[in-house]
């Protein structure tokens, strides 16, 4: 789908978004018949309430949506989108009740509420509830973000049978063609020739050739490199996952899907950066030539890695890509990956934890995440845990024992390859486990919207 606001000038029903505490003051501005109708129908401004108010001819003259209380809004995201589903099909314009960041967030939620993944089933189109772009809103930017969200969801929701390394490459090439970017791909045994040994090692057991996808766009401004984990399906390798843990592994390329969505937003908005997107795309499969527990791999950077668990493969493919990224000394490197279960234990599925040593970047991300309903939370690069990733027999251990601080030790592992420049790592879930307003169960963009809004500040634009 291509989310878009209704064309300006389209006949639209006025929509008033009313917080419970503001209802009385709003009613004071209305004629007696409107006041009587609202009171008689028990509208209080509570969360999820909607009400059509008739005009003199009996046809709807306006619609009301309850906007709850500030405390409830802190607990429930995209309230307008949730309430809008109870309104009849038609076109609406926000007449009162929203401004600033809340207006942008709710308008974005309205657009993405229309998302549905229908590739594999016949489904009648849902009743359309269109919205006129509110005055004072950068409608193009909101539409851009909504399109990026839908791209990310589509990529994650597609099953691994139709979203392997080649299909992920095709998605990157399609995006590049749309925005006049370039793509270079290193595939199969050429990974060994070009010194990406760990990407090759993880992906070599699958008949679907591993590859490194390298997209570039822009020729001026700060250098920004995005690195996304593209494990298109993760069996766990020889350390095979149990069935319950393998069920969602089509989403293990969620980091790649998120950086492609973010790249789309950056290119569509014309952000003045030199953008590079690196995606190591592999399938972690099982066969006679699979890499083994106890193997020692030599990375692109030259650091050796002892394999203590083949199910800790994401950090291996990211390590080679991060080493390549660091060789150009960009102004900022950002990695995004569905990397550890430990991150989910720490913050749950709804929050995107991130790691950085850059205080200004951390503050910018926190502000952007809060204002755009894209919750992020900083976790520490805790230096004393460096000892946990040093096994003694090799430079690094890909799966330290003990069961503690798994998200932190994984992030520390990646930092070893990201160079000495500015680096931010996101350990995301990329999945909504239950349907909520504007967020159906399934693939999800996490952290990428906060990044998009924070990047100008982070890069001095």
TrEMBL record:
Domain of life: Bacteria
SUPFAM superfamilies: Zn-dependent exopeptidases
Keywords, sorted A to Z: Aminopeptidase, Hydrolase, Manganese, Protease
Pfam families attached to this UniProt entry: Peptidase_M17 (PF00883), Peptidase_M17_N_1 (PF21337)
Keyword Manganese: yes
Hydrolase keyword on record: yes
Domain Cytosol aminopeptidase: start-end pairs: 309-316
Gene Ontology MF term list: aminopeptidase activity
PROSITE patterns for the chain: CYTOSOL_AP
Family: Belongs to the peptidase M17 family.
Record's protein name: Leucyl aminopeptidase family protein
Organism: Pseudodonghicola flavimaris
């Amino acid at each position: 789908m291509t989310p878009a606001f209704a064309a300006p000038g389209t006949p639209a029903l006025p929509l008033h978004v009313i917080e419970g505490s503001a209802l009385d003051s709003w009613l004071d501005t209305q004629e007696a018949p409107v006041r009587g109708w609202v009171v008689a129908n028990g509208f209080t401004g509570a969360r999820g309430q909607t009400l059509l108010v008739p005009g003199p001819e009996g046809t709807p003259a306006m619609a009301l949506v309850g906007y709850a209380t500030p405390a409830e809004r802190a607990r429930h995201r995209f309230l307008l989108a949730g309430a809008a589903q109870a309104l009849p099909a038609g076109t609406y314009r926000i007449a009162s009740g929203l401004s600033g960041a809340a207006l942008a967030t709710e308008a974005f939620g309205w657009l993405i509420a229309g998302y549905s993944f229908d590739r594999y089933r016949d489904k009648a189109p849902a009743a359309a509830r269109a919205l006129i772009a509110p005055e004072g809103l950068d409608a193009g930017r909101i539409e851009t973000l909504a399109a990026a969200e839908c791209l990310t969801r589509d990529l994650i929701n597609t099953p691994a049978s139709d979203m392997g390394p080649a299909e992920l490459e095709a998605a990157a090439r399609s995006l590049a063609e749309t925005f006049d970017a370039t793509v270079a791909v290193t595939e199969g045994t050429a990974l060994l020739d070009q010194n990406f040994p760990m990407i090759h090692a993880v992906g070599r057991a699958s008949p679907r050739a591993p590859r490194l996808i390298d997209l570039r766009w822009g020729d001026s401004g700060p250098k920004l490199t995005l690195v996304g984990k593209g494990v298109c399906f993760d069996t766990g390798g020889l350390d095979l996952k149990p069935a319950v843990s393998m069920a969602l592994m089509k989403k293990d390329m969620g980091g790649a899907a998120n950086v492609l969505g973010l790249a789309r937003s950056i290119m569509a908005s014309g952000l003045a950066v030199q953008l590079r997107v690196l995606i190591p795309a592999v399938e972690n499969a099982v066969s006679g030539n699979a890499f083994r527990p106890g193997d020692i791999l030599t990375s692109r950077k030259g650091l050796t890695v002892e394999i203590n668990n083949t199910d800790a493969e994401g950090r291996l493919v990211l390590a080679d890509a991060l080493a390549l990224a660091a060789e150009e000394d960009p102004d900022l490197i950002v990695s995004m990956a569905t990397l550890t279960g430990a991150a989910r234990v720490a913050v749950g599925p709804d929050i995107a934890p991130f790691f950085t040593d850059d205080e200004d970047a951390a503050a910018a991300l926190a502000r952007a995440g809060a204002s755009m309903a894209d919750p992020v939370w900083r976790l520490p690069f805790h230096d004393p845990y460096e000892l946990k990733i040093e096994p003694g027999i090799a430079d690094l251990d890909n799966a330290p024992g003990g069961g503690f601080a798994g998200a932190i030790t994984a992030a520390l592992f990646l930092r070893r390859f990201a160079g000495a420049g500015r680096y931010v790592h996101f350990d995301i879930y990329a999945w909504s486990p239950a349907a909520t307003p504007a967020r159906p169960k399934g693939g999800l963009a996490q952290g990428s919207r906060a990044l998009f809004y924070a990047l100008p500040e982070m890069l001095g634009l």
